[in-house]
Structures are given as C-alpha cells and as structure tokens.
Amino acid sequence: MSELKTEEEQIEAFKSWWKKNGIMLVVVIAVAVGGYFGWQGWKTSQANYTSEASALYQNLVQASADLSDENNQKTVVFIAKQLADDYGDTGYAMFGQLFLARVDAEDGKYDEAIKALDDAIAKTKDISFVAIANLRVARLMLQKEDYAGAMARVEKVSEEEFAAQQQELIGDILISQGKRDDARIAYQKAGEALGVGVNHPLLDIKLKDLVKG
To answer: Given pLDDT bands bounded at 50, 70 and 90, which one contains residue 207?
Structure first.
C-alpha cells in the first residue's frame, strides 16, 4: 500500500506541476523546434539565393563572349542590372559591373563605363576587385587621353599580384605621351614582375618597338 500511495502521490504531484508549468514547457519546446526549422529554412533560402545569382552570372558570362552581337550586349546589361538590384550583396553583382562597364566601353561610352566601375568600387572592400576595377578605369581614361587621371588611378593599385599589369599600363600611358625612355623602364618592370619563364608576347613587342626606335 505504501508503494501504491507513493506512486499516486507522484502522479498527483506531476499533475500539479503540469498545471503550473506544462503550458510553458510546450511553448519552450515549440519555440525551440520552430527556431531549428526556421534556421534550416533560412539556410536553404540563402543557398537558393546564391544559386540564383550564380546562374544569372553564368548567363552573363556566356553572353559577354561575343559583345559584337547587339543582343548579347542587351543581355549583359539586363543581367548586370538585375544582379545589382536583386542580388546586390553578392560578389556576382560586383563582378557583373565589370561586364556592364565593358559593354559601355565597347560603345565608346567611357564616362558611363567609369561610373559603373566606380559604383562597384564604392560598394566593396575586396582589395583584388578594387585593384582590377582601378586598372580598368585607368585604361578607359587612357582611351579618353586623360593621361593625368589614368596615371593617378593606376598608381592606386599597390597589390603585388597586379604589379605586372600595373607597370605595363603605366608604360602604355607614358608611351602615349611620347615618354619613350620612361615607358621602356615601366615595361621592363612589368616583365620582371611576371617572373622568369613567363611569356607575354604583347609586352615583348612593346619593348622591341622601343629598342628599335
């Protein structure tokens, strides 16, 4: 009997505890379960979001393979703007601006191309992207014969991995101003930055032309 009474007391004690705490326990469990599935849902949503941006970017890259085709130009512009508007916090949107600038440059719209690149630079802290964008802006300024602007922009690139491109572009700016000796030095620095055994036929041609001159 004493054992039975003890079990009955335990049951009654549990009932009493449940009346006081049962609802709260259910709420806690529900919140915990909801939080887990909410987290899983958020991760799935993020994965889908990135996947969509990636698919758009791949389409953009394919269209950019032949920018002599007006339809491809329109496709690149459309996708680049869609990436910027709907996926602006992804790297795909950032690199999409490089292609948008390329389309503008192909049409001779250098100011528009420079603006697209500067807008992208302002939205990122990725030093490699900033270096690439600054080199492209410098080339566009060179096309505009804005030599001072081009030189100022190319000198913003300080990353060692872009030293060869930087020095070659400096050489291009200098040769456009008729500064052949300075240009030759810059081209030589570009070759040194490439390293031993790395071929750059165009750079070799530029140096040979200066030697012949």
So the answer is: confident
**Angstrom distance (rounded) from CA 134 to CA 157:** 7
Task: Name every residue whose Cβ is closer than 8 Å to that of residue 80 and which is 6 or more positions away in sequence.
Answer: 60, 96, 97, 99, 100
Rounded distance, CA 177 to CA 174, Å?
5
Task: Give the 3-state secondary structure of the chain.
Answer: CHHHHHHHHHHHHHHHHHHHHHHHHHHHHHHHHHHHHHHHHHHHHHHHHHHHHHHHHHHHHHHHHHCCCHHHHHHHHHHHHHHHHHCCCCHHHHHHHHHHHHHHHHCCCHHHHHHHHHHHHHCCCCHHHHHHHHHHHHHHHHHCCCHHHHHHHHCCCCCHHHHHHHHHHHHHHHHHCCCHHHHHHHHHHHHHHHCCCCCCHHHHHHHHHHHHC
Distances (CA, A) of 28 to 13, 32, 42, 57: 21, 6, 21, 43
pLDDT at 80: 87
Q: What is the pLDDT of residue 107?
A: 87
Taking 80 as the threshold, does the pLDDT of residue 51 lie above it?
A: yes
Distance CA 171, CA 157 (A): 15
